[in-house]
TrEMBL record:
Binding sites annotated in the UniProt record for [4Fe-4S] cluster 2: C195, C211, C238, C241
Family: Belongs to the QueG family.
Domain 4Fe-4S ferredoxin-type, chain residue ranges per copy: 176-205
Gene: queG
Lineage: Bacteria, Pseudomonadati, Bacteroidota, Flavobacteriia, Flavobacteriales
Residues the entry annotates as binding tRNA: K220
HAMAP family with a match to the protein in the record: QueG
The protein's name in its UniProt record: Epoxyqueuosine reductase
Amino acid sequence: MNSKSKYTELIKTEAKRLGFLSCGVSKAEFLEAEAPRLEKWLNNQMHGEMHYMENHFDKRLDPTKLVEGSKSVISLLLNYYPSEEQNKNSFKISKYAYGTDYHFVIKDKLKSLLHVIQDEIGDVHGRAFVDSAPVLDKAWAAKSGLGWIGKHSNLLTQQVGSFYFIAELIIDLELEYDTVTTDHCGSCTACIDACPTEAITEPFVVDGSKCISYFTIELKENIPTEFKGKMDDWMFGCDVCQDVCPWNRFSKSHKEPLFNPHPELLSMSKKEWEEITEETFQKVFKNSAVKRTKFSGLKRNINFLKD
């Protein structure tokens, strides 16, 4: 076994030990196919008020501009599918936000993986990324053979669907690279048909400025009144396009204790959400991604749903 194969196997074995669902590797290079897509998406104003998406265009497409001397992008998936879901007759929160903020959980795992790489292999440099830097996570995961991009623009995997986080380690070590997998969406349009705000404008294209996740998390101004009655009771994020996807029949519950929700979150009724106090908000969402929207943002979303 040559050193590239040996190092790649070591990294994938360690990723599994750390609890990652899967690990794939691709060459750090310019994402040629993504460049025109990203440019068109931005030109069509599909990022809405997410102005940060306009920044670092070159770095988004070329990891060697983001991490000097980088040779490999290691893509990792971490399952977050819950064993229990919220009370059905309540305002809804996206499943990914049930437990501790994934940024903290995954960052720690990535640091551990990088330390093992450095201890076992030697002088390897790199950076860990969890959805908070100009990295096209889904494109890299697809390039690394971990799944294909579905019509809802999420990464899909035959064995486990799409309820997982994507993260990367970009390092200056050459490894053995994986090959892309095939698309298995076929003629299915379940996600497009089910989107409450018609945000999936065509297969593989999501107009972010019409997405419920954008309205309830990213948008700082008032939610446009034209979307009244179309929010499907989502007060933080939205899972509709994933919930209806046939491949998510194969989702299995995660094994990460930190992703378990506060017990109150699952049982709260609409009335309880409407009357939520800042104290309850802090207790139920301690260390949660829901903190992004703040108490005032969550109240705004709830009021929009109930009025």
